[in-house]
Amino acid sequence: MGGPVRHQKLLDAVADGVQRVEDLARELGISPSTVRRGLTELEQAGRVVRTHGGAVPAPAGGELTWVQKGLRNAPAKRRIAERAAALVEDDHMVVLDAGSTTTLIAERLAGRSGPTVLTTGMGPMSALIDAEGIELVLVGGRVRRRRGAMVGEFTRGVLDRVAADLAFVGADGLVPGRGVNCPSPELAAVKEQQMRAARRTVVVADSTKVGSDAEPYWAPLAGPYTLITDDGLDTGARRALEGDPHCTLLTVPAPGAPRTPARGD
């Protein structure tokens, strides 16, 4: 297949639900390496979003849904979620932000008995709706559907009356010394209020998010916080985090690395 023709056939196959590299190669009669190159070029053109092992169609509005975000770097996010859930004690009150990684944290808390979880996210809510050992509190507010997030004045007003032990906050990007990056002022305001509502803020973000400032709005990290990420950090990102006096860095093995205890245990 020629370049443009190959790309269109590849894009059509992804849109039809054939989204793993191996399946695309078999469907189109081309090599997996050719599929990977094509997907990379389509991602650069904004037509698909690469996931672990394949790709999904890019959202029409440019902003990923929380379900689509959950497919990106999923193995790293699962390890981050395991490490985060281990910080929760049975008598804790926990705030869970909306997002893919916080949904994975909620899934790992679902079998626990004792914690109280307040959430602004549809993902964590769904993960905990049948968890009888968890006291589940929905913060409420106007739903930003693409993100599965509750936002607005009502949401912030509820969080202003909360005194939690831990707040787990997701990020589209994180820049040490500046804060958490996200695509709307409403999301930024809720993240900031979540951090104020807890004694300890824990940002959960895979290593590709560290140093990223692609979105225009920020929730400042004004005080001490813990970052749980994978050890795929590049040298510059690690140096910046280690130089941030407010940051306690916990890393988990990147996908494919041996599973060893994270530093800070």
UniProtKB/TrEMBL annotation:
InterPro entries: ArsR-like_HTH, Carb_Metab_HTH_regulators, DeoR-like_C, DeoR_HTH, NagB/RpiA_transferase-like, WH-like_DNA-bd_sf, WH_DNA-bd_sf. Signal peptide: none annotated. Keywords: DNA-binding, Repressor, Transcription, Transcription regulation. One of its GO terms (molecular function) is DNA binding. SUPFAM superfamilies: NagB/RpiA/CoA transferase-like, Winged helix' DNA-binding domain. Residues 3-57 form the HTH deoR-type domain. PROSITE patterns: HTH_DEOR_2. Pfam families: DeoRC, HTH_DeoR. Repressor of the lactose catabolism operon. Galactose-6-phosphate is the inducer. This is Lactose phosphotransferase system repressor.
